[in-house]
# Entry
Amino acid sequence: DTGVSQNPRHKITKRGQNVTFRCDPISEHNRLYWYRQTLGQGPEFLTYFQNEAQLEKSRLLSDRFSAERPKGSFSTLEIQRTEQGDSAMYLCASDFLGGNSPLHFGNGTRLTVT
Amino acid sequence: GENVEQHPSTLSVQEGDSAVIKCTYSDSASNYFPWYKQELGKGPQLIIDIRSNVGEKKDQRIAVTLNKTAKHFSLHITETQPEDSAVYFCAVSREAYQLIWGAGTKLIIKP
# Structure
């Protein structure tokens, strides 16, 4: 399967701890996105990369959140000093700029902050 | 900014019947309208999309219609099957990262 892959699938952490999630996009895709989804809602855009450059960040992305895509392939999303309000599904998606390529999502990482 | 409203929030239909979900949007410059299906514990999966130069698109049992004048578009599923049960999201954008999502419709197929 060559879809978008996210790890881990689930993460339980205590408030105040740092967590890091990984996303491996579809290999030929040059754009990568992070979204957050809470129960009963649609995905909320957090940030996106074109190759290794982070081009857009939502105002939802507090300074405790940082994302990287160092070589233009996989990406990591780190949340520092987690809060209970960070509990959500974190979704990664990818597409290809210029080819009318639709957005493909991974199955997400579900974060629970206790 | 863009605002997307999706109705109904829950839809229950008998297996074999048709289901219709409707979304309205506010930004007349929006030009891309995808529909996603999300099953429990999974990410959204694109099922069909339409661009503003097309009024209707069909893929087997699934179709999308777009009315740009009225600023609404609809998802039609015919001959519904149990595996169609899921949450369906519409979205609207001019660029992929600018997707604005509806609140979702939980579709229940009754056997």
Remarks:
- Chain A has a mean pLDDT of 93.
- Chain A has no helices and eleven strands.
